[in-house]
Amino acid sequence: MSLWRKLHETVRWLIVHLSRKFPRTAGFLGVLARRRRPLWAFAYVLLHITGFICSIFAVMQTRTEQGAVAWAISLNAAPVVAVPAWFVFGDSKLDSYVLTRKAGVEELRPFAEGLLKNLNQFDWEVPEEGSPVATLEQLASLPMTQGNRVELLVDGRNTFDSIFEAIKQAEDYILVQFYILRADKLGGELKSLLEERARSGVDVFVLVDNYGSFGLEDPYLKEMRDAGIKARFFMDLSGEANRFQLNFRNHRKIVVVDGKVGFVGGHNVGDEYLGHHPELTPWRDSHLRMEGPVVKTLQIPFAEDWYWATGEVPADLDWTLTEEDLAGNQKALCLATGPADPFETCAMFFLTAINTARERIWIATPYFVPDDKIVTALQLAALRGVDVRILIPKVGDSHLVYLSSFSYLEGMEKAGVKVYRYEEGFLHQKTVLVDSELSAIGSANFDNRSFRLNFEVTGVVYDEGFNREVAKMLASDFANSSPAPSSEYTESSFLFRLQSRLARLLAPIQ
User: Fold this and answer.
1) I want to staple 228 with a disulfide (CB 3.0 to 4.6 A). Which of 194, 198, 312, 483 is the partner?
2) 430 is an active site residue
3) Element of type H or E holding 388
4) Candidate list 296, 430, 447, 477, residue with the active-site label
5) Domain architecture of the chain: domains with CATH
6) Are the C-beta atoms of 467 and 375 separated by less than 8 Å?
7) Over the stretch 14-72, which tens digit does the pLDDT of each residue have?
């Protein structure tokens, strides 16, 4: 196809979308679209008009001030690049998911109401004043459940050995959801286990993200389906509403077996998570294995996502809860967050954790690109005497994120926040430890995408014994790290500091 033809088709596509937004101009735009000459001039003017219109939507819809400014300037100054990018990445609201979610909630309501009624039977002592539990329950729209047993899984081999063993014991159903699923050795092991269970009569549901699992071979999923597994992508990118929307990614990692055993954390399915990446190795990550009432609540975000992808609620899931389901004495909560929430739930979770910390808050994250509210909260926590530590990779998998992290060092150091770079491989875990009572391990990163755009899930544990394990794990990670002083930024060249600041400015639209 010639360059002229490609330009013509691009303009026609823009006209179609403008016609849908402004129906009264459809006839006029259609006449212009059929004109062959001088198309380049019309395209240039149309792109600027489109950029101006899109900049208005950016100002009205974008959730951060920095993001709105960045989009507004780029859409008007460089519409040739920014307009196509806006249609792919600009939208910060997934309206179609919101509508589908409301319908799914109605379908799930009988199960959810019954589950909540059962959960209320297991009352536990209200935490002392100042605890973040009540706020977290409001954010999750679910109670902090008691009677759980939670196991900390460190790194890939421990995690997947535990997941595979649970899958082997499945009798009724298995729910599997990952952001990344690769058709490599680890992915092949998972597929073989799921196929064996499906052939044995177990209902198996597999849901993966289109963007994260881009390139997953069709034969891989076809073989799953041939074995009786219900395997789907989260979003149908062939649909008119979704074709150009790659901004919303389902970053959740969920495995549930028979409603009794559940897993959440930072691991995806790929050989690199076992430490086989050619450059980023060893791979440092963390996961949770959970038993008890919290596992039933973990089924809710999976069921909502499955309903969005298929229009159906997964059949025959176990939503009942009896004394026999109590597996231990730990308290835990499932916090599912995403762009369809009425509030910026993920960002609010981190703010709650930071603002309620009295002695310490330790955060491990591969992507440290917080917004101004989070930065201020971290600084205030350090100024009031809280031990604030941030652990980030020394070597990352995103150059833009790596560059932007340097721009935070000076402000963090001035307030007393300690930043460390992990040196023993690539740090991918997403872990938060607050004082001695509360910890959280899940899929949410410390960046704008997780705060506002990704679908995430986090396991929150309120138990001193468990959190001693988390503290011990993080202390070991800090011992394998080196401080990141502000001089890494302030004593660098002007060009490097400029690159770092520009990378930070781009963070809201990443």
Assistant:
1) 198
2) yes
3) strand 387-393
4) 430
5) 3-90 (no CATH), 151-324 (3.30.870.10)
6) no
7) 555 555 555 555 554 555 555 554 455 556 667 777 777 777 766 666 556 666 676 77
